[in-house]
């Protein structure tokens, strides 16, 4: 349930900027681009420029932790991309691109491209969540690369160190706090209602906003979605990995692989790595890391990384499309293809601080233990829950191997302290009765169709669609079919013609030989 960019491991998807680049009250306010009326003050350096649109930027001072003024305030930044047609806007769409902790303002041009038709008469509100991008950072001293490449024991230790470094400020990182920031900005701008558009983690955040501020919501679009009552043991993703391999093989033209063989190769590879991990050097722009590639890292590669960017350029090589070949060669004793994929995927490792990711995940998400239990009891509760999972629930993986492959589930937060920790986000809050559209990609093992359907079921007036041959956050595909469906829904509250979702082309798959 994460949104991955080249700058941050946010647990799920792709960077909108990277994709679209291939085609294309202390409050301050600034404007860039075309404008009318009195001149605005000079725009800050972080305020984006979008061709054909005025962009207004500003910041609000917000309490770091509500009810604890001694902890100070935090500056939250926003940008409003104004509609291009004459007259008042017919609505305002607030977009969150995922994470937790993904930035939004720097993706203004990309979102404007994807929502081009909607932005003729709707404004677009982009907020950098607290601690990210142009909003004031509150770091905890754990980097993206350290967290991603570390062993599971090292990840758990990093979580504990993050909490220790944040201290009482850790309680400032919650989905509820970010939702309230967005609503404060809405009120500051004088907007009565928002259409909420959440991608990946944004599909968790926006229902939190809707439950806390129902009177200010007109509709929701959730893409790459998962429910507030997420599975703390990550079983839907594990089950989707095998079905995804079968689908890419079955749909490849000409037939490049056998889906059942690909699943057997995956199971063999996972079993071998369980007892004999590989050491893979990863070169990033920040240095060289030695990654211990174990069953859990294979799981992460298969459900998270391989779901990113699938279908955006279907004729070009993708991680998912190359995996059947790489897994088969590994089984045959040739580790080079899989090593290469691991190295390529790891290049985006960065030094970006992970406080906005770790703290939200550990504060908000449902766990397999009580937050009020001491550590020894947490371990007992967690191990009991894992042991109760039926055999085969993790497909080609062991239960331990797959759950340790997640960066936001399983046991990763088990050492997060009881002190300074808010109660987990409620899983069944009352939601407004507004139109809701939920989208998934049917090649997405990160937030698979099963999770999207559960996300839709949280609302009374919802509809769910799966985009064929697409991975995580499907509207990033370049034909703008999926973005067109979303735009129509945001304008009308109706699904309209969704036939293009079933006609997206299959991805290229590297042939499996021998």
Please specify the SSE layout and strand pairing.
Blueprint: H1 16-21, E1 28-32, E2 55-63, E3 73-81, E4 91-96, H2 108-114, E5 122-127, H3 144-149, H4 152-166, H5 175-189, E6 194-199, H6 202-212, E7 217-223, H7 235-251, H8 259-275, E8 278-284, E9 287-293, H9 295-303, H10 319-331, H11 336-346, H12 355-364, H13 375-387, H14 399-403, E10 436-441, H15 449-456, E11 462-467, H16 481-492
Parallel strand pairs: 4-5, 4-6, 6-7, 7-10, 10-11
Antiparallel strand pairs: 1-2, 2-3, 3-5, 8-9
Features:
514 residues; alpha/beta; two-stranded antiparallel sheet; 16 helices; 11 strands; disordered N terminus
Q: Can I get a quick summary?
A:
The protein is built from 16 helices and eleven strands. By secondary structure, it is of the alpha/beta class. Strand 6, helix 6 and strand 7 form a beta-alpha-beta unit.
């Amino acid at each position: 349930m994460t949104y991955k960019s080249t700058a941050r491991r946010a647990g799920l998807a792709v960077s909108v900027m990277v994709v679209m680049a291939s085609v294309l009250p202390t409050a301050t306010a600034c404007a860039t681009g075309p404008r009318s009326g009195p001149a605005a003050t000079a725009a800050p350096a972080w305020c984006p420029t979008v061709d054909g649109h005025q962009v207004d930027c500003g910041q609000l001072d917000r309490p770091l932790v509500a009810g604890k003024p001694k902890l100070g305030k935090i500056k939250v930044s926003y940008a409003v991309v104004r509609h291009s047609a004459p007259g008042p806007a017919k609505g305002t769409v607030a977009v969150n691109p995922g994470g937790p902790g993904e930035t939004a303002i720097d993706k203004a041009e990309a979102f404007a491209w994807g929502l081009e038709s909607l932005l003729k008469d709707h404004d677009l509100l982009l907020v950098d969540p607290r601690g990210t991008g142009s909003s004031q950072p509150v770091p905890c001293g754990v980097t993206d690369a350290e967290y991603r490449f570390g062993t599971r024991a090292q990840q758990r230790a990093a979580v504990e160190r993050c909490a220790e470094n944040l201290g009482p400020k850790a309680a400032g990182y919650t989905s509820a706090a970010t939702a309230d920031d967005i609503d404060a900005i809405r009120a500051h701008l004088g907007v009565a209602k928002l259409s909420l558009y959440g991608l990946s983690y944004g599909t968790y955040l926006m229902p939190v906003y809707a439950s806390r501020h129902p009177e200010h919501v007109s509709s929701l679009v959730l893409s790459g979605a998962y429910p507030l009552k997420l599975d703390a043991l990550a079983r839907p993703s594990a089950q989707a990995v095998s079905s995804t391999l079968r689908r890419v093989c079955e749909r490849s033209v000409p037939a490049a692989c056998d889906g059942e063989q690909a699943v057997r190769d995956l199971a063999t590879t996972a079993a071998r790595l369980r007892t004999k991990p590989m050491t893979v050097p990863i070169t990033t722009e920040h240095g060289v890391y030695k990654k211990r590639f174990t069953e859990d890292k294979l799981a992460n590669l298969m459900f998270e990384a391989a779901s990113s960017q699938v279908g955006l350029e279907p004729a070009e090589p993708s991680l998912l499309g190359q995996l059947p070949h790489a897994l088969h060669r590994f089984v045959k004793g040739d580790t080079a293809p899989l090593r290469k994929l691991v190295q390529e995927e790891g290049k985006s490792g960065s030094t970006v601080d992970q406080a906005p990711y770790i703290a939200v995940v550990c504060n908000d998400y449902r766990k397999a233990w009580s937050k009020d239990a001491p550590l020894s009891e947490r371990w007992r509760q967690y191990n009991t829950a894992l042991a109760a999972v039926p055999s085969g629930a993790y497909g080609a993986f062991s239960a331990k191997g797959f759950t340790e492959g997640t960066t936001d589930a399983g046991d990763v937060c088990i050492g997060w302290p009881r002190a300074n920790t808010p109660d987990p986000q409620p899983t069944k809050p009352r939601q407004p009765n507004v139109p809701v559209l939920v989208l998934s990609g049917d090649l997405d093992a990160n937030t698979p169709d099963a999770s999207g359907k559960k996300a839709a079921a949280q609302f009374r007036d919802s509809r769910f669609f799966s985009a064929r041959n697409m991975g995580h956050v499907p509207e990033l595909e370049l034909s703008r079919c999926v973005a067109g469906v979303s735009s129509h829904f945001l304008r009308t509250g109706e699904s309209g013609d969704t036939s293009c979702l079933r006609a997206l082309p299959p991805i290229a798959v590297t042939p499996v030989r021998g």
